[in-house]
Design a protein that fits this description.
The chain has helices at residues 4-20, 26-32, 38-50; strands at residues 2-3, 54-56, 64-66, 68-70, 86-87, 90-92, 104-114, 119-120, 126-131, 140-146, 160-164, 174-179, 183-192, 195-199, 208-210, 215-225. The chain is an alpha+beta fold and 229 residues long. A hairpin with an 8-residue loop joins strand 14 (195-199) and strand 15.
Length: 229
Amino acid sequence: MLTAKQHELIRFIQQRLEDTGISPSFEEMKEALDLKSKSGVHRLISALEERGFIRRLPNRARALEVVKLPENAVMGSPAPVAANDAVSAAIPAKAVAPEPANDIINVPLHGRIAAGAPIEAIEGQSSMPVPAALLGPGEHYALEVSGDSMIEAGIFDGDFALVKRTDTARDGEIVVALVDNEEATLKYLRKDAGRVVLDPANGAYEAQVYEPHRVQVQGKLAGLLRRYH
């Protein structure tokens, strides 16, 4: 069963594929469905994907394929809505090979951050383009990782950490922690006996233990970008 908004979105995607052969961007889908944010589009896309109505094409940013349409869906006609605000069943959709659609967000790039011993947090003026799919709601920034203390968490030297800006985090989350107002590091956050513990993900490093007033959470890890040379 699909909700009216899910039905409306899949019809919009299919219509755009038939008209142009290119799947719409998340911004276009947000405007077409009169949604307040792209996070609402993300939720609708995920729900349609889980139900097998659409699929994301691998290695192609923002490329969507309609696998099947809701029953009785006809392009150009109003979406049928049942009393419970849902539509049922599905029929195969005509396959259209879309080209990737651009939906990129430029986030601030704030220098390098230590994944070993803390280093000075560098406030840069540059930015980097990031696929919106890697970012959820909220304000984000990027940091280049320096060091190997988080390699067991899959975070390597030279990676770009995508960080959601926040001053709170739960135990076990990977955070950007500012120590003594001047040094930043990327670590697991843990609280123990009234102290703040920054745990590495590398057996060669020891945990860093601080009094709470010395540590400020500046964000938590939302994603990673990696360049291969």
